[in-house]
Specification:
Number of helices: 11
CATH architecture of the largest domain: 3-Layer(aba) Sandwich
Bound molecules: oxa(dethia)-CoA
CATH topology of the largest domain: Peroxisomal Thiolase, Chain A, domain 1
Shape: globular
Number of domains: 2
Number of strands: 13
Distance between the termini: 16 Å
Mean pLDDT: 97
Strand order of the largest sheet: 1-7-6-4-5
Order of helices and strands: EEHHEHEHEHEHEEEHEHEHHHEE
Radius of gyration: 18 Å
Helix content: 25-40%
C-alpha cells in the first residue's frame, strides 16, 4: 500500500505587511527586497493567534476538499518550528480544535523542510499499516520569532498554514517516494538561540534578542541551491523518470533567485516551476502546501500528472517528494 493526496487547503491571515511598511521599520527598500528575494508582501497573524489556529483553517479546507470528516482521520502530523507551546504538540491542539478524536497526533521539527518531513512520516505510517487516513499540515507564525529591527531577516518571512489529506492507495500511485537529508554540522547557519534548554527564557534572552532567527543568508543560499537540486535528481533517479516527465516542480518558497537557480540546474523551464512567494514571503513549513493548493486552483497540474516537491531549511535539513497527483 501507498498513500495519495485526496484533499488540499491553505490559510493565510488577512493582515498584510508590505515592503513599503517595512521601509518605515528598518533601513531597506521595496526595490532591494524585490530584487534580492522576489517578495512584495507577506501575511502576519494577529497577536494572540496560535499556530494551531492557522493550521485549523487550512485543515478544515483540506478535509472539505477531500470530503472526509475529522472522525475519519487516523494520523495527524504537523510540521512547524513555531509551535503553540513547547509542550504539548501543536498537532494535539489541532486534534482538539478540529475534533479528530480517534487520531494520534504529533509534531515534526524540520523548519522549512517541515512539510516534507511530515508528509514522509505520514506516508511511511500509512505504508506500515498504522492508519488509512492522515492529516498532514505545515503551519507557522514566524512573526513571533522575528526581530523587526534586523533587516537581514525580518523582510523574508510570513505567517500561514497549508494542509493535505493523505489516504491509503495502491502501491505505485500517489506519493511515489520521499527523500530526506540533514546535516547538523551546519546548524549555526539558521537558528533561534533562545527559548530552549541551552538558553531558557530570561533576561539574557530578552536583552540579546535571542528569541529571534539568526541567519547566514548568503551561505544558506548556496547550500539551498546545491541541496535542493541534488535531492530533486535523487527523486527522479529513484523513479526512473526524467525532468521532461515532470508537469510541475513546487519548491519551498524562500527566495526567487534560489528557485530560479534550482530550476536552471535541473534544466526545468520556468513555466514548470511554481512560484507564489511574492505574496506570502517565506512561510517555512507552510510554503509547500500553500503553493500546492494554489497550483491546483490555477490548473497547473491535473490528475495523473507528476509533481515534484523540494525544500531546505534549518538543521540544515532538505528533502524531496515525487508524486502522481
Ligand atoms: O528557508 C530557509 C531560510 N531562508 C533563507 O535562509 C534565505 C536564504 N538567503 C537569502 O535569501 C539571501 O541570502 C538574502 C535575501 C537573505 C540576502 O541576499 P544576498 O544577495 O545573499 O545578500 P547579502 O547577504 O550578500 O547582503 C548584501 C548586502 C549587505 O550589505 P553589504 O555588507 O554588502 O554592505 C547587507 O547588509 O545587502 C544588505 N542587506 C540589505 N539591504 C537592504 C541585507 N538585508 C538588507 C535589506 N535591505 N533588507
Amino acid at each position: 500500500m501507498g498513500s495519495r493526496i485526496i484533499g488540499l487547503g491553505m490559510y493565510a491571515p488577512p493582515k498584510e505587511l508590505t515592503n513599503e511598511d517595512l521601509e518605515k521599520m528598518v533601513d531597506t527598500s521595496d526595490s532591494w527586497i524585490m530584487e534580492r528575494t522576489g517578495i512584495r508582501t507577506r501575511r502576519i497573524a494577529e497577536p494572540g493567534s496560535a499556530c494551531s489556529d492557522l493550521c485549523l483553517e487550512a485543515a478544515r479546507r483540506a478535509l472539505a476538499d477531500a470530503g472526509v470528516s475529522p472522525s475519519e482521520i487516523d494520523i495527524i502530523v504537523v510540521g512547524t518550528c513555531t509551535p503553540d507551546m513547547p509542550m504539548p504538540s501543536t498537532a494535539c491542539f489541532l486534534q482538539q480544535k478540529i475534533g479528530a478524536g480517534r487520531a494520534f497526533a504529533m509534531d515534526v521539527s524540520a523548519a522549512c523542510s517541515g512539510f516534507l518531513y511530515a508528509l514522509s512520516t505520514a506516508d511511511a505510517m500509512i505504508r506500515a499499516g498504522r492508519g488509512k487516513k492522515a492529516l498532514v499540515v505545515g503551519g507557522e507564525i514566524l512573526s513571533t520569532v522575528l526581530d523587526f529591527t534586523d533587516r537581514n531577516t525580518c523582510i523574508l518571512f510570513g505567517d500561514g498554514a497549508g494542509a493535505v489529506v493523505l489516504s491509503e492507495c495502491p502501491e505505485g500511485e500517489g506519493v511515489l517516494s520521499c527523500h530526506l537529508h540533514s546535516d547538523g554540522n551546519l546548524w549555526e547557519l539558521i537558528h533561534v538561540p533562545g527559548g530552549g534548554t541551552v538558553h531558557p527564557y530570561g533576561p539574557e534572552v530578552e536583552e540579546k534578542r535571542m528569541h529571534a532567527i539568526r541567519l547566514a543568508g548568503n551561505e544558506v543560499f548556496k547550500q539551498a541551491v546545491t541541496k535542493m537540486a541534488e535531492v530533486s535528481l535523487e527523486a527522479l533517479e529513484k523513479n526512473g523518470v526524467s525532468v521532461s516527465d515532470i508537469t510541475l516542480v513546487v519548491p519551498h518558497q524562500a527566495n526567487l533567485r534560489i528557485i530560479n537557480a534550482v530550476g536552471k540546474r535541473l534544466g526545468v523551464p520556468e513555466e514548470k516551476v511554481f512560484v507564489n512567494l511574492e505574496r506570502f514571503g517565506n512561510t517555512s513549513a507552510a510554503s509547500i502546501p500553500i503553493a500546492l493548493t494554489e497550483a491546483r486552483e490555477q490548473g497547473r497540474f491535473a490528475k495523473g500528472d507528476l509533481v515534484l516537491l523540494t525544500a531546505f531549511g534549518a538543521g540544515l535539513t532538505w528533502g524531496s517528494a515525487l508524486m502522481r497527483m
